[in-house]
Amino acid sequence: MSFGARSAVHIPEILRARTALAAGLLLTLLAVLLALPSPAGAAASGPMTHPELDWMGSTIRAHEGGSTSTGNVATPLVTQTPGMDVSGYQGNVNWSAAWSNGGRFAYVKATEGTSYTNPYFAQQYNGSYNVGMIRGSYHFALPDNSGGAAQADYFVNHGGGWSRDGRTLPGALDIEYNPYGATCYGLSAGSMVNWIAAFSNQYRARTGRYPTIYSSTNWWTQCTGNSSAFSANNPLWIPRYSTSVGTLPAGWGFHTIWQYADSGVFPGDQDRFNGAYDRLQAFANG
């Protein structure tokens, strides 16, 4: 057989080999593309790039608006106890001045996700206590960052504990609009309820108390389907910058704390405990 004849025999085999190689490369490329996050997934999650700007209510005004006046709040039916919540954004707080202005309790941001701790936590948490306030700490939730139980553990391990000393409030879970992406962190209503339950149950297992839940009615309705699953055990902290607390999320017949303004006579946000000072002490003791 001549050389030309041998070439004619092998050309189809070469073409088939090249076709198979191209197909293999195409399949590999498709697998890589399918493994990449979709645009929707990317929108639901993002890196924690500005935790110092994430505080209790930092997303509320942008999404829900509200009055800038703190002097037009409706007269409540029961005696209220004034207080505040602060974060690293306030830096070192003048607690003596806050006490002189009537502040009797304070919540301090301790953690966010499973990697951030407030660098001013000690000054704020201990400083409020030292002037006589009843104080507690809160965790800024990132449900797309890690599981609820993991974030509860991180919170308790970094300032979120509780003790029955009459001066320590139960820890609070701050769950609000996602500052890094999709409003509900890419979770379905059912998955969000499960995440909150995991956090709440782990916090109770670690401390003996259910955490207070801070959330707005609008966010809660959108992202949990207006779940009533937590109203029996978890105190409600409602943000609403208006003359009254408005409609509460499903199941809760009353609120425990109302964040009624994001600025005012106290550092940070302005809050009212829904009861007299002795009821605040009772709340601290559990």
List keywords for this structure.
alpha/beta; disordered N terminus; single chain; 8-stranded mixed β-barrel; globular
Task: Walk me through this protein's architecture.
With 286 residues, the chain is an alpha/beta fold. The protein is 37% helix and 15% strand. The protein contains 9 helices and 9 strands. Strands 1-2-4-5-6-7-8-9 form an 8-stranded mixed barrel. Helix 4 links the parallel strand 1 and strand 2. Helix 6 packs parallel to helix 7. The longest helix is centred in the first third of the chain and has 33 residues, at 3-35. The chain is globular.
The biggest beta sheet reads:
8 strands, mixed, barrel
Strand content: 15-25%
User: How would you state the average pLDDT, rounded?
Assistant: 86
User: Helicity level, as a percent range?
Assistant: 25-40%
Provide a brief overview of the structure.
The protein is an alpha/beta fold and 286 residues long. 37% of the residues lie in helices and 15% in strands.
List the helices and strands and how they pair.
Layout: H1 3-35, H2 39-44, H3 60-64, E1 81-86, H4 95-100, E2 105-112, E3 116-117, H5 121-130, E4 134-140, H6 148-157, E5 172-174, H7 189-207, E6 212-214, H8 217-224, E7 236-239, E8 257-261, E9 269-273, H9 277-285
Parallel strand pairs: 1-2, 2-4, 4-5, 5-6, 6-7, 7-8
Antiparallel strand pairs: 1-9, 2-3, 8-9
Helix pairs in contact: 6-7
